[in-house]
Each structure stands twice: as C-alpha cells, then as structure tokens.
C-alpha cells in the first residue's frame, strides 16, 4: 500500500525551490556493484523517504511512497569529468528523492555518490546515510546480513519535534508559532511556480594536513574559532571579487544552525527530515578587509541568535515565508566540521569526502566546509555565469591565500 504525508513549511520550502545535494567519497580498491545495490536497498528499507517522490496537490506538497518502488541507481565508468557531471546532476523530485551513483575509474578506485533531496534530509543526515550505506556494504562483503528496521516510520518534520521536545525557541514544548496558518502556507508554496533550475559552477580549495594543522593552531592561539574565521574569509574574499576598491559594502552571510542536539532528547537522523535552521549576519565589509574582524562580528551575531532561540523560532513561526521583506543573502557558509572516517571493507580505503548542492539561487554563493583525513576542504558553488571565470579564479585564489597564509592579526585583536 502506498504511503503519503503532507510536507510542513520547513520541508515544503525545499520542495518549492527543489534543492538537492550530492554527498560523495573517493575510494581506492574495488567495489562490487551488485553488493552495493543490495546495500543501498537495505538503506532504503530502513529510511523509507529514500524511496519516495514529491507530488503537488491542492493542499500542498506531499511525500509519496509508491508500493514496491525502488530508488534510482547508476553505475558508470569514467574519471573526474564523469564524476563531476554526476555530482552536479540534479534530482527530478517528481520521480525520486534519492539517487545512488557508482563511478568506477580506469584503475582500481572511483567515487561513490548519494544525491539526496533537501526536503527530506540535511547535510549532517546526508553524511550519516553515506556511512550507513558503506557499513551495510562492508557487512555484505563479509557474508553478514545487516539488521534494518522493518516498516520504519516516516521521519517527522522539524515543527513537530521542536514543539514536543522544546529547545531555546520553544521552552518545555511551548506552543510558539501556533498562530501561523501552516495549512495556508502549504497551499501557497505548492500553488506558486518554483524558480527555474540554476546550474552551479563548482570550485574547491583543499588544504594538506600540515597546512590545516597550522591554520587551526594559529586560530586557537588567537582564541578565534575556525568557523568564525572561515565565515570572515569567505565574506571578505567574495566582497573583493564582486567590486574592486570602492566604499565598504553591506553584505549578508547566512549560517545554518544544526538543531539536533539543542532539544531533549537529541533528534536522530532517522527521526527527522531537515532539522537545520538559518541565521543571517549583516556586516559592512571594506575592500581588503580583515577576515578576523568580519568573522568575529558574524560569530557574535550567530551566538546571540542561537542563545535566544532565534533559529528554532524561524521554523516554528515560518519566518522565511511570513517576512514582509525576506533577507537577501550574499553567501551561506555551511560548516559540517570534521567527518569521521568512513567504514570500508578489506581492500577498500576511503580517501576523500565532498558535498555540495546541485542547484542554487540567483546571486547566492554557497561555501561548504569539511575536514576529512585531517585536511580542510571548502566547496564553493555559485550560479553559472554569476561570476566570470576570472572572478571565480580570483575568489578561489583569495580565499585560499587567507586559509594557507593568513596575514598577521591586527594589533589589539
């Protein structure tokens, strides 16, 4: 029997803009495609929305799980160009919310990709599902049968879990946001035409382990968080490429806030869909500005918003939909932090992790920061054509310089 559930506004927004993200690992060794597909089927059994698709109805967007339908799998041979093509290929959410891709290199090794729709998962969830897939595959290579829950329930929207588990934005399960007409919002989102798909241009900065350690050591000595410095560096680098010289430029940096550990009990990936909110920081950035100073201002704003429960209220009060003038954001810095080593069977070694979105919005740049194998990486995606090739190269070069050899901290900081 098919299952169906209407999306709450926090989920429906991602359905409306049709965001999906790609999560991948590079590996050495050989992966058995048939066993991998078997492991993927087990993953989908334990996480039913991986088998779902989206549909628009008069009452709103809905997750639909057709009986007996499996998720999409693709196996291709090829090198880096094929891999990057698959990383950037968006989902057709009317057909599927998930896709597994295995790209096998000419020699032993290749890339494993999970493409996931943002309406049913967030970044931390994507990393978790990728690890679960590799754990299932590793067990199958040993002749073991992984245990997965039968008839797993559909995960809950953030609105439900925040109301029942509390948090700074809804203490003790208070009814914050109950004045919002969610049914009307669902109808409005489903009835409006979605923005067109914007192809992304993807760039990457990857430090070696030594440079990563030196950067972290310098920032710790200055009592500045890595996240604050990365936000400052991204904002300064973008400002310098958008306009050479000139007066200080007002900019808005968005920072996703992971809410899973801010409620009691903490919310697991299996329990929820997208459990991340956002906070925007307005800063005025001079040409050639100091990333430390800009980063500290962004961090102060983020810390204050988190302490006051603004991130929770943004979901419960549907602020991104009910604001008279929605905030125009120049960039978003998503810091997924250190990614634990992925499980792999004998003869296979995971050497790298990457994750970025398959589409974006007009004028919006996304910076996804991770650390895998003690190497810091920054994935930069922008709307194709928003920046010239020279500007993109300059942005990567400028931010790379700020990470590899940051200037000395100004006196008094």
Nearest-integer average pLDDT: 91
Which structural category fits the helices and strands? alpha+beta
Overall geometry comes to: globular
- Sequence of secondary-structure elements: EHEHEEEHEEHHHEHHEEHHHEEEEH
Total domains: 2
Major β-sheet annotation = 6 strands, mixed
Calculate the terminal CA-CA distance, rounded to whole Å: 62 Å
**DSSP helical segment count:** 12
If you had to describe this structure to a student in words, what would you say it looks like?
The protein is of the alpha+beta class and 413 residues long. It has helices at residues 9-17, 33-46, 80-88, 123-141, 158-165, 182-191, 209-221, 226-242, 291-307, 310-316, 319-322, 389-404; strands at residues 3-6, 20-28, 53-57, 60-65, 72-77, 98-104, 110-117, 200-206, 249-258, 276-285, 331-338, 349-357, 365-372, 375-383. A hairpin with a 2-residue loop joins β13 and β14.
Main features:
alpha+beta, Chloramphenicol Acetyltransferase, 6-stranded mixed sheet, 5-stranded mixed sheet, 14 strands, 26% strand
Task: Summarize the structure in short.
This protein is an alpha+beta fold and 413 residues long. The protein has helices at residues 9-17, 33-46, 80-88, 123-141, 158-165, 182-191, 209-221, 226-242, 291-307, 310-316, 319-322, 389-404; strands at 3-6, 20-28, 53-57, 60-65, 72-77, 98-104, 110-117, 200-206, 249-258, 276-285, 331-338, 349-357, 365-372, 375-383. A hairpin with a 2-residue loop joins strand 13 (365-372) and strand 14.
